[in-house]
Structures are given as structure tokens and as C-alpha cells.
Amino acid sequence: MTHEQYKDAAQYWDKKESIPMPKAELKKAVYDYIKANNTCALATGAGDYVRCTPIEYGFHDDKFWMFSEGGKKFVGLETNPNVCLAIFDKYDGFGNLKSLQVMGKAELVEPFSAAYNAHAEYKKISLTALEKLPTPMNLICVTPTEINALFSDFKKDGYGSRQTIIF
Q: Which of 9, 104, 151, 155 has the fewest Cβ atoms within 10 Å of its own Cβ atom?
């Protein structure tokens, strides 16, 4: 493909006409979906290195929170706070699509800080148990900058199936 063909392919959905949902209605649908799930694919990267990790999340205070012992995702997180996470249903036909792509900024939360302890409480994880670990559990916090939703159900209400929230 030429550069122009890649560019056209990348802009395909941006050029399609879509009827936008009211922001409050869209945000409620998206947040309800986020809260109905607990696992995402978290993509991190730096330079030529890219990693996509399935990981459990909690969602509160308009942010995604993920405890992690460690792993290769930290290669990217060390130098690049830009991440993407995806939440999606199993494919069950084109008319039943439901997924989110979340672009955001990741930060590591200091172990046993107020935010760390608050998330442990949210997850019902005892601080005593966390303190007994040989090394502190890492806590990744992702603040969304943009969420792209693809919900086939939006069409039933007269809106485009693809909607975007910019933060």
C-alpha cells in the first residue's frame, strides 16, 4: 500500500457520516459497559517494542486501576505513559458488536499511598495481605483521554454505531 492508501484506510471511520449521541447518554452507556466487565487488553510500548497484556481492572474515579506483580508491560511503561486498552464481547455477528478502545495516560501509583490504599479497599484486598508480599504489588492507573465505542445497539436508537468521548 502507498502512504495515501494507508492514510485513507486510517481515516475510514472518521469520514463516515454518523449521528452523534447526546454526551450524557453516551457516557452512561460506556460507563455501564466498563463496570459490567473486569478484564481488558492493555497495550504498552516503547520504540519498536509493543506488548498487549490481558489484565483485570477496576474502574472508579473515572480511571482504570490495575494491580500487577510485574511483567513485560513495564518495558513500555518505563518510558512511554501512552497506553491503549480494549474491552470487548465475544464476536457474535456484525449486528451484535460491543467493544471499547480507550486511549489514555498511565502512571504508577506509589505503594501504600492514599490512592493505592483506596484502590485496595475498592477491590476488597487487605492492606495487611499486601504488606506481607515479598515485593509490593504494582498499581497502574490509566486516565482516559479518548474512548471509542462500537455498540451495534446504538443504531436501534437512531445513532451511529461508533461514538467517541474526548476527555
A: 9
Report the CATH number that the domain containing residue 123 is assigned in CATH.
2.30.110.10
**pLDDT tens per residue across span 19-30:** 999 999 999 999
* CB of 142 closer than 8 Å to CB of 109: no
Inside any domain, residue 87: yes
Tell whether 4 is covered by a domain.
no
Tell me if residue 131 falls in helix, strand or coil: helix
The cell numbers describing 19, all together, are 449521528
The verdict on residue 5 lying in a domain is: no
Model confidence pLDDT, tens digit, residues 29-56: 999 999 999 999 999 999 999 999 999 9
Query: Cβ(110)–Cβ(79) under 8 Å?
Result: no
Distance CA(154)–CA(98), nearest Å, equals: 10
Q: Is the pTM of this model over 0.85?
A: yes
Q: Provide the CB-side half-sphere exposure for 7 (13 A, CA).
A: 3
